[in-house]
Amino acid sequence: MVTSTLSQPIAYPAVGAALDIAHVSHAFEVDGAELPVLDDVSLIVEPSEFVALLGPSGCGKSTLLRLIAGLDAPRSGSLREDEARIKGPHPSRVVVFQDPTLFPWRSVWDNVALGLEAQGILKTHRERIDDVIDLVGLTGFRNAYPHQLSGGMAQRVALARALVNDPKVLVLDEPLGKLDSLTRIAMQAELTALWQRKGFTTLLVTHDVEEALVLANRVVVLSDRPARIKADIAVERPYPRHRGDPYLADLRRQILGLLGLDATW
After folding, report:
1. Which of 7, 57, 73, 129 has the least CB density, counted as fewest CB within 10 Å?
2. What totals of helices (H) and strands (E) does the chain contain, helices first?
3. Is the Cβ–Cβ distance between 219 and 54 less than 8 Å?
4. Residue 219 and residue 255: Cα distance in Å, rounded?
5. pLDDT of residue 262
6. For the chain, where are the alpha helices, taking DSSP H only?
7. Cα angle at 150 between 144 and 155, to 5 degrees?
8. How far is CA 123 from CA 29, 94, 117, 128, 165, in A?
9. DSSP string over 172-201
10. Considering the domain 19-258 in this protein, what is its CATH number?
11. Is the bond into 175 cis (omega within 30 degrees of 0)?
């Protein structure tokens, strides 16, 4: 049985933001030609929801996350956080990528401190760093360096670096994709516990249907590029969820069918 390493909730819980994605289309210029990526995507995410995005490789899932994070601007349509238009990056929306992208010359503590340094508030909020390091189960590794960490531990550092900003929206772009299966299951439990304790709105891109069903309140299935929403499925099961649950197995078959895969997998 997977047990959580999380400590007690820290004293500054974040409040999840509402997201309103309205008629968003996007395209890239490739070799002088336009490559459509998203086609009229509309999605409302309620505060503190956990929404997983599934779809074929290259369909535009990660592009949609970048638009939500404010890293890119859409060709058309609008994205809003709590009714304020998203015009660029903001500390309230934090991205965790598949690669932890830690600075090898900085300790765990110093890597986690990066966000506060960038905002110029490290001196007044130093206690947050120790709090989130404890929260993600890395007590005792504050002074370790990335080369001394396992893949799962490095991804915990990346999560701590995101959480130290008290985000309202946590954007996860396949953060567990490079982990071995046992570490991935353990980290799924950690993510669920972090989301429940902190209350941030979460969007997850994954290619793992089972992962989406274990973690999310809703699973949004996208079509081939240019992506449209094919289905928006509520996962009506309490936490913790069990992979052998027949209800989840049935949803898995439905989603695999929507993705054009053999539903007997």
Report:
1. 57
2. 8, 10
3. yes
4. 9
5. 63
6. 61-69, 108-112, 114-119, 126-135, 151-163, 181-198, 209-215, 246-258
7. 85
8. 43, 21, 9, 11, 14
9. EESTTTTS-HHHHHHHHHHHHHHHHHH--E
10. 3.40.50.300
11. no
Backbone angles phi, psi at 25, to 5 degrees: -125, 150
Packing angle of the helix pair 181-198, 151-163 (nearest 10 deg): 20
The single residue listed with the structure tokens 């900003």 is 165
CB 69 within 8 A of CB 95: yes
CA-CA distance, 72 to 83, in Å (whole number)? Answer: 18
| 201-205 and 50-54 strand pairing | parallel
Q: How many CA atoms lie within 13 A of 79 on its CB side?
A: 25
Q: Is the dihedral of CA 133, 139, 144, 150 positive or negative?
A: negative
Say how many C-beta atoms besides its own lie within 10 A of residue 49's C-beta. 17
Q: Please, which contacts does 257-260 make with residues 24 or more away whose CB atoms are closer than 8 Å?
A: 258/221, 258/230, 258/231, 259/54, 259/55, 259/56, 259/209, 259/221, 260/56
Q: Which pTM value belongs to this model?
A: 0.85
Beta strands in 33-107 (DSSP E): 33-45, 50-54, 76-81, 84-85, 93-96
Instruction: Supply the pLDDT for residue 86.
Output: 95
pLDDT of 210: 93
Q: What is the pLDDT of residue 10?
A: 38
Mean pLDDT by 10 residues, the chain (265 residues): 37 72 92 88 95 91 92 94 93 86 92 84 83 85 92 87 87 84 84 88 93 95 93 93 91 91 59
